[in-house]
TrEMBL record, chain B:
Organism expressing this protein natively: Daucus carota subsp. sativus
InterPro entries, A to Z: TFIIH_Tfb4/GTF2H3, vWFA_dom_sf
An individual GO BP term: nucleotide-excision repair
Lineage summary: Eukaryota, Viridiplantae, Streptophyta, Embryophyta, Tracheophyta
Pfam families: Tfb4
Name used for this protein in its record: General transcription and DNA repair factor IIH subunit TFB4
Length: 607, 289
């Protein structure tokens, strides 16, 4: 706030009709005070801005009074009449400023997050962006509330890592380049008064840009003539005169005027720059693509595209051919320019700079082409290669790399060796049972068992009931245990399977831990006291969260509160959090030890 | 060639091909586990119960010996009141034949039985039934195995697994031996069958009837137990040891445990690895989960 207080002469009215008591209105930051001129009057006012919720003011008009109406929460309003409008405006601005920030603080508890006062000078734009970001992202808001309000992190640190998301908001709109208009705005018919003989042409920077882009001859003339030979207005007058002549389709008159005025002739004739450009383009066509492209295709700049018209209709001589122009030409040229896009990003204000920029662009292009001899060489190579007739060539030996395929048996043998090794590993347990078996003995024992069962038959019952029960329960336990279902379905996630409250809690803890750890690790190595204090604060917050984790998801708690099924996944999720915190604490301890030993050593040798 | 006739697809008919491990070396040294007679009694009871489930059910038994494999039992051919006798009789004859085929007298360790052979025989039989019968029998293979995996059969076993996958035949495996069988784990995983290694061997019948008795149609809605994991670990090509993390040639996908200059399988040269950046600053984020 630039002013501390505003003191103005004003009249206080309790209602609009009231003539008002004259006095002095003093506005300070927190309150405004009205002292009537008449010391005996009772109309003293001393109201804090806290209670003022809005202000209204009358419009600025020669016959009206300058009124300012401050509305209070309960419906009461204070109306002041000022001597002059500037006075009223000054008071009004002051009131606006005085009301706005307290309103912010007042609403902080409900919806809008507040930004605590900091020692930095922040622009209002920056504050707005932060507030908007906090409003949009509720997770961020929670973190902000927890840490910045809790005093663990300062505002600057919190936002330091989020510069990217702040900046992105504002830069999203300026990335697009505006293209050229597709309507031919310079070809609009001039407005003319029916009565007088005048026609009015309008000229805007956009139109000038279009003209220069489409008619390079005009551009060249502009650069040459202005401001040496004639002024800009004269130039444009001549240009519009030429346009007018064209629009009347009076070729004879055009020729006549052109003969008189050299400069006008430039506008009336065909655009020779365009012609040369078209010719150059034809030459650049790759003959392997289009062998037919040659000088004859050079017609885009000619009227009627070089089509032969019925000559009997035209009564004019060939000398007037130069001055003919058709709408089709203009349209095609315009379309070509629009499709090329806006190649010059120059401010449209200065005509001359636009013209120069466009000229420079064209020159650069032509210079690039001229100097590109490699392109020529490449093209002639390509032509000679494409022109070959393959069946007339002699046989050519292709450079072939010999195929080397290894014997696939090697792979399988390796797999077998591997299998043997794994079996060897697993068999090591039963090695002590290995005995040299006699084949005869082995087969003999087998046959014995078979005949034994043939004689005995099946036992009754085939298995004992307790054994069957045990087996059955073991199998069903295996089926129902979620341990065997995890990770099988790629679409389902562990988090989604948990109840909502648990999931929210876990996610919130995780994000807070991430935030704290980010700040913790970034402040090492500790070089200043500021970092030292910061690390201590962060560490305290981390230990608080650690304890909370233990309480919520600790081994005892999980067993009782969380369902049996979720015990395992929850502990799986909580484990890395505790591990990360443990790592941070360990590092802190080590560093602390080092520092304390260092500080102890120093008095020995140093002061 | 019989003309392809319209097949009747019935719901819960099953054709069960049981591969019975008849490795004498394994069964005679299996001291802590199930004796062979008990095993056979559980098996026979199980086969009877399968045949009781549906009139059209069919059971085929194939013995997996050390030197040969053979068809032991076919429920469609055997007399209905003498099933067990027929099976055991044939089994004994098979064991005698197998013994005659054995070359050496004494053997060091436990020889592996011919799993690939019996798998192939099972597949052939099933193919024949599929092409000739009028009913689509919903075939599946149950492998009761105990002896260790023979590494020389790796290729053949994998081939039969893939052809079973092609014909959509699940291969269920019940491993009775002391250790897991990598071949059968892979077989069940690839073909979509059940792999189980029962802990309680004297309750084998309960295992068999709970897990392996369900026909293919019911498997879509009965939740059967899933295996915890399959050992798919690769082995490196240079040392033939199983590794968890290694280097792969991007041309032929061969695996190495150490960085090489050249791939030994396809001969392509590798680019140089970049020098690792030493962490000079302590600024780092907390480790992610």
């Amino acid at each position: 706030m630039s002013e501390r207080q505003v003191i103005k002469r004003a009249k206080y009215k309790s209602s609009i009709k009231d003539p008002g008591t004259p006095g002095v209105l003093t506005m300070k930051r927190e309150r405004f005070v009205f002292m009537p001129s008449d010391p005996r009057s009772l109309m003293k006012l001393n109201v804090e801005f806290r209670f003022i919720i809005g202000h209204k003011f009358s419009k600025e008009a020669p016959n009206k009074k300058a009124l300012l109406n401050l509305t209070q929460d309960k419906g009461e309003s204070y109306i002041f009449e000022f001597d002059s409008f500037p006075d009223r405006d000054a008071c009004r601005d002051f009131v606006a400023m005085a009301i706005a920030p307290p309103a912010n603080a007042g609403k902080a508890s409900s919806d809008k997050p507040s930004v605590p006062p900091s020692s930095e000078q922040l622009s209002t734009a920056e504050m707005d962006r932060r507030i908007k970001l906090l409003q949009v992202d509720s997770e961020l808001q929670k973190l902000h509330k927890e840490f910045v309000m809790g005093g663990v992190l300062t505002e600057a640190e919190f936002w330091a890592t989020r510069k990217k998301s702040l900046d992105e908001k504002i830069s999203s709109k300026s990335k697009q380049r505006v293209g050229l208009k597709s309507d031919m705005i310079f070809n609009v018919k001039p407005s003319s008064d029916g009565q007088s003989n005048r026609v009015k042409y309008s000229l805007t920077p956009e139109i000038i840009h279009q003209i220069f882009a489409e008619k390079p001859a005009v551009r060249r003339a502009y650069l040459n003539l202005v401001p040496k030979k004639m002024t800009e207005t004269d130039f444009w007058m001549k240009y519009w005169r030429a346009e007018y002549l064209h629009s009347t389709k009076n070729i004879v008159a055009a020729a006549a005027e052109a003969a008189e005025d050299e400069e006008l002739a430039v506008f009336l004739k065909q655009d020779d720059i365009l012609a040369s450009e078209a010719r150059r383009k034809i030459r650049r066509v790759d003959p392997t693509l289009d062998m037919e492209a040659d000088e004859g295709d050079d017609y885009t700049h000619l009227p009627d595209h070089g089509l032969s018209r019925d000559v009997s209709k035209d009564l004019t001589d060939s000398q007037y051919d130069l001055y003919k122009r058709s709408f089709l030409q203009d349209l095609n040229r315009h379309a070509a320019v629009v499709l090329e896009g806006r190649s010059v990003d120059v401010e449209l204000g200065d005509t001359r700079s636009v013209a120069e920029a466009l000229t420079r662009l064209k020159e650069v292009e032509s210079a690039n082409e001229a100097s590109n001899t490699h392109v020529e060489q490449g093209r002639s190579d390509l032509i000679s290669r494409m022109a070959e007739l393959e069946d007339l060539q002699g046989p050519r030996d292709h450079p072939v790399a010999p195929l080397s395929i290894k014997d696939p048996r090697d792979y399988f043998d390796s797999q077998q060796a591997n299998a043997i090794k794994t079996l060897g590993e697993s068999q090591s347990g039963s090695k002590h049972k290995k005995s040299i078996l006699n084949a005869h003995e082995a087969y003999g024992s087998l046959r014995k068992s078979i005949s034994e069962i043939k004689d005995l038959g099946l036992t009754d019952p085939i298995i004992k009931s307790e054994v069957a029960m045990k087996v059955f329960s073991e199998l069903t336990l295996r089926i129902s245990n979620t341990k065997y279902h995890h990770g099988k379905d790629p679409h389902e996630s562990i988090l989604d399977g948990l109840p909502n409250a648990t999931k929210e809690e876990i996610l919130h803890q995780w994000t807070s831990i991430q935030e704290l750890l980010k700040h913790f690790w970034s402040s090492y190595p500790i070089t200043t006291t500021y970092l030292h204090i910061k690390v201590n604060k962060v560490k305290d917050a981390m230990s608080k969260i650690y304890q909370k984790l233990q309480v919520l998801f600790g081994p005892i708690e999980i067993k009782s509160s969380v369902r049996q099924d979720f015990r395992h996944p929850v502990s799986l999720l909580v484990q890395p959090m505790t591990q990360a915190l443990d790592a941070a604490f360990a590092h802190y301890e080590v560093d602390f030890q080092k520092r304390s030993t260092k500080s102890v050593e120093r008095p020995n040798g140093f002061v | 060639m019989t003309p392809v006739s319209r097949k009747l697809y019935t719901d819960d008919v099953s054709l069960l091909v049981v591969l019975i491990d008849t490795n004498p070396y394994f069964w005679s040294t299996n001291n802590s586990g199930l004796p062979y007679s008990k095993f056979l009694s559980h098996l026979v009871a199980f086969l009877n119960s399968i045949l009781l489930l549906n009139q059209l059910n069919q059971v085929v038994g194939i013995a997996t010996g050390v030197n040969s494999c053979g068809y032991i039992y076919d429920s469609s051919l055997a007399p209905p009141n003498k099933r067990a006798e027929t099976l055991l009789q044939k089994l004994e004859e098979f064991v005698i034949k197998d013994e005659e085929l054995s070359a050496e007298d004494s053997v060091d360790g436990i020889k592996s039985s011919l799993l690939s052979g019996s798998l192939s025989m099972a597949l052939c039989y099933i193919q024949r039934v599929l092409r000739s019968g009028s009913l689509h029998p919903q075939p599946r293979i149950l492998c009761l195995h105990g002896s260790p995996d023979g590494p020389g059969q790796y290729v053949a076993v994998m081939n039969s697994i893939f052809s079973a996958q092609r014909s959509m035949l699940p291969i269920d495996s019940c491993v009775i031996g002391a250790q897991h069988s990598a071949f059968l784990q892979q077989a069940s995983h690839i073909t979509g069958g059940i792999y189980s290694k029962p802990q309680q061997l004297d309750g084998l019948f309960q295992y068999l009837s709970t897990l392996f008795a369900t026909d293919l149609h019911s498997r879509s809605f009965i939740q059967l137990h899933k295996s915890v994991g399959v050992d798919f670990r690769a082995s490196c090509f240079c040392h033939k040891s199983t590794i968890d993390m290694g280097y792969i040639c991007s041309v032929c996908l061969s695996i190495f445990c150490k960085p090489h200059k050249k791939c030994s399988t396809c001969g392509s040269t590798f680019g140089q690895p970049q020098a690792t950046v030493s962490p000079t600053n302590l600024k780092r984020k907390a480790p992610d989960s």
